[in-house]
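Exercise 7. Given the encoded structure of a 338-residue chain, write a plausible sequence.
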């Protein structure tokens, strides 16, 4: 971290200066989660929430649970007197916004779309998976927040890649809730269709696989075998469960030690000694992993909340890292499990 960045970080952390924040694309699910977190964050000063379609309306008109939490109205103006701007728009919209909206270099940007996740598109964005790029994120001015399925898949595979243990093909299966499809109603996303229903989609061609491949190759450059992913829509509102398996010669004890060592300093990724349940992570910024050896295969189960660790929670985690704050600040969220 440069001397200027260190001074800036200590300023926010020690002197008590608040981080001035703007959000563009404030009406969707990820923006709603982001607003909920930031309103309770001890260092966050939410200056504006931009939405052309809702300009002038109260925030709680769209995000109904926020009634009584804030008096902010949606705005159609971009204020430049901020420290960080979160982009919560649809894929392709962030690049369009930045191309037509010149911003001061002093404003940090955290983008929650997939526009800048791949190196070929990244420009000067850093890929924002803290378990992989923490030290780089701390120095970054622009961060591309990872995808929800991508986060769960990468966290299940990175320890193997780091140890150069990925050899054969990897097979992944995942299930996500209806919020993963966004707030706009679709034929397969509305309640009467998704209730009591499970279906496959984008089999072996999910858009997050390119970023998973990119991160795996960041740690194990020679791995070129197939990453086979079958995603499912589930009869749940939120949450992701991914299972991954591949052949290995390592013992179960060696594999568990490998994962515990890799994530020993991770703020939100934890290794469970028993097969976990989705309710343990929904409404939190955690990823819980379970590792076991079955015959000649390592099987890894990875669970997270698609709107938090898979989106807005991880975005705030990245903000904390950029501004030198404690990584867990504002993210002490309670799971829905009893």
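Solution.
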């Amino acid at each position: 971290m440069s001397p200027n960045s260190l001074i800036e970080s200590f300023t926010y952390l020690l002197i008590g200066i608040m981080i001035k924040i703007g959000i563009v694309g404030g009406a969707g699910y990820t923006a709603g989660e982001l607003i909920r977190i930031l309103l309770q964050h001890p260092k966050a000063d939410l200056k504006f929430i931009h939405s052309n379609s809702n300009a002038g309306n109260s925030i709680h008109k769209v995000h109904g649970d926020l009634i009584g939490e804030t008096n902010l109205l949606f705005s159609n103006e971009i204020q430049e007197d901020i420290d960080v701007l979160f982009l919560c728009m649809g894929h392709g919209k962030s690049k369009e916004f930045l191309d037509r909206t010149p911003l001061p270099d002093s404003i940090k940007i955290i983008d929650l779309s997939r526009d800048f996740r791949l190196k070929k598109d990244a420009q000067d964005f850093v890929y924002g998976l803290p378990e992989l790029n923490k030290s780089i994120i701390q120095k970054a001015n622009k961060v591309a927040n990872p995808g929800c399925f991508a986060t769960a898949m990468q966290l299940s595979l990175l320890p193997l890649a780091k140890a150069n243990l990925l050899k054969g093909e990897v097979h992944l299966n995942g299930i996500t809730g209806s919020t993963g499809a966004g707030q706009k109603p679709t034929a397969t996303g509305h309640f009467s269709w998704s209730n009591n229903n499970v279906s496959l989609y984008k089999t072996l061609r999910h858009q997050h696989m390119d970023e998973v491949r990119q991160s795996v190759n960041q740690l194990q450059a020679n791995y070129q075998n197939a990453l086979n992913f079958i995603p499912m829509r589930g009869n749940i509102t939120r949450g992701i469960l991914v299972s991954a398996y591949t052949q290995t010669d390592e013992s179960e004890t060696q594999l568990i030690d490998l994962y515990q060592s890799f994530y020993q300093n991770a703020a939100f990724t934890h290794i469970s000694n028993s097969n976990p349940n989705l309710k343990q992570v929904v409404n939190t910024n955690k990823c819980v992993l379970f590792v076991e050896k079955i015959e000649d295969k390592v099987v890894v189960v990875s669970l997270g909340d698609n709107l938090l660790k898979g989106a807005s929670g991880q975005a705030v985690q990245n903000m904390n890292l950029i501004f030198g704050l404690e990584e867990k600040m504002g993210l002490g969220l309670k799971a829905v499990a009893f």
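Remark. The radius of gyration is 20 Å. Students should compare their own answers with the one above.
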